[in-house]
Write a structure and sequence with these properties.
- The complex is a heterodimer of chains A (290) and B (278).
- In chain A, strands 1-2 form a two-stranded antiparallel sheet.
- The longest helix of chain A is centred in the first third of the chain and has 31 residues, at 2-32.
- Chain A is 71% helix and 1% strand.
- Chain A is an all-alpha fold and 290 residues long.
- Chain A has a single domain (59-281), classed as MetI-like (MetI-like fold), CATH 1.10.3720.10.
- Chain A is globular and about 75 Å long.
- Chain B is an all-alpha fold.
- Chain B has 2 domains: 4-57; 69-275, MetI-like fold.
- Chain B is built from 14 helices and no strands.
- Chain B has helices at residues 4-37, 41-46, 59-67, 70-101, 107-116, 122-135, 142-150, 154-165, 169-177, 182-193, 195-211, 214-219, 228-238, 243-275.
- Chain B is globular.
- Classes of the chains: A mainly alpha (290), B mainly alpha (278).
Amino acid sequence: MRAFLTALPFITPSFFGVVAFLIVPVIVLFVLSFENWNLLTPATFTGFNNYINIFRFDGAAHSLTVTLYYVLLNIPLQTVLALGLAVMLNRRLPAMGLYRVLFVAPYLSTPVAMAVIWYWVFDPKLGAINALLAQVGIAGPQWLSSPTLAMPVVALVNIWQYVGYNMLFFLAALQAIPKTLYEAAEIDGAGPFKQFFRISLPLINSTMLFVLVTGVIGSFQVFDTLYVLTQGGPGNSTEVLNLKIYQVAFMDFRLGEAAAMSVLLFGVILAFTIGQFLFFKNRTTYEYSV
Amino acid sequence: MKGFPVTRAGRLAVFYLVLTVIAAVFLVPYLFTLFAAFKPIGKIFSEPAWIPPNSLYLTNFTHDFEDGGFYRYLGNTALVTVVLTLGQVFFSMLAAYAFARLSFPGRDKIFWLYLLTLMVPNAVTIIPLYAIMREAHLLNTYYAIFLPYVFGAPYTIFLMRQFFRNIPQEVIDAARCDGCSEWRILRQIVVPLSRPVIITATLIAFVFGWNNFLWPLIVTNSQSLYVLTIGLANFQSNMNSQWNYSLAASVITLVPMAVVFIVFQKQIIRSISITQIR
């Protein structure tokens, strides 16, 4: 009892926070997803209608597809680039620390501000990119106004923002691999490529899992960049789930449908997270794994 | 053999050239923005982005601060971020200390409950949190902006607990025998030994608070409560092609983060080894 009283003041604030702002919201989310609520009249029970309606009228399937497309554009390229940069910087050469710091800078930069800047950089008439292309005689495309190019541009902007951050994890993992392993491989005649695929890559398995899981979870929730760059357009070509949830809830005031879409997003994120854990669990973990 | 030093030097030169080109991709957007923020609108339209301004033209900034409301937005953002950061770090530290260093009934169950909430994505709680804030009549207040994050964050609690557990038990026991209260042990022994993790937690909370957009966008609707990100996004959509103002506003939003980055760059890099979950 005494032990409990000692701990009480330490635990109470965070316990209140976790219950009131994480656990209760999850319960409220599920309740709301079965209700009709427009903020003006009291909520009424509507069964599974919201779940049916979001697919029939709100294009939830389209938003889900677009979200998956975004994740697919984002994660593989970002992971490969982050790993590539880490391998480049994992050398005992001058100025490596300076480059490392430079590559990480975008991670702290406010995404909304960066999106405003990239909107300008990709502007077909004023932007630096088309101006550069014009210098070499190429008429640049419409970028964000093009239904086919808008999403790749958004993905590039996000890769630019987070690649350096992910590189840091890979770099830390690579630096933790004992040098003796590479020396032994060299004596056995393994070249740099073989060393990378046979030693480095298997030994950074758990870092790879961490980077992929956090990256995928983040990508599924993309909002800020899209809100500024496309608002879901042109047409509905970049209308990802999180943006759609915002529009349905706070522009159409249909909170029930928005809650049902949030449950959908929750389920997809959980499924992908569990899937990645299972995939990596079945691969060998080595003694030196970092 | 004679050619060897040359090829090695050549390979190094190519290596640094590639790195520098990549570094340029990371730096150039900031540089162009800084140029444009100090140019009148006419020049932004008429000359390429890579031309630096030829005079220190400050009108874009004075316009943003005085007519655009950015004094207010900057103040709001600073206030909300500081409160959020102080609360999150302090309350997380208390919880982490209890989980790492105290034994009380139900401790491990409560800790598992906290860990379980790590699986709840931020975006998913937005709708119900809005409903809760509405019920509590807290919509459109400063409180609404920081309240969900101020009582501690499970991720931060987890990081701090790992760190606190590695403090040798003898150090703590010695203090306990001398009749120290748990508060004094935390303040005088644990906190000074845990600077790296406290700095990491502070950075995580500060970056989150400063950059937060979706949540403040939903819970505030009067201009006097707007934070920088909302002011900036509104600017962008209301004043199409007034790039001089919105790029200067981006600079205003980014400069405090740049200061944090330059001051804490070593800690940011080091914090990666702390945040890595094994």
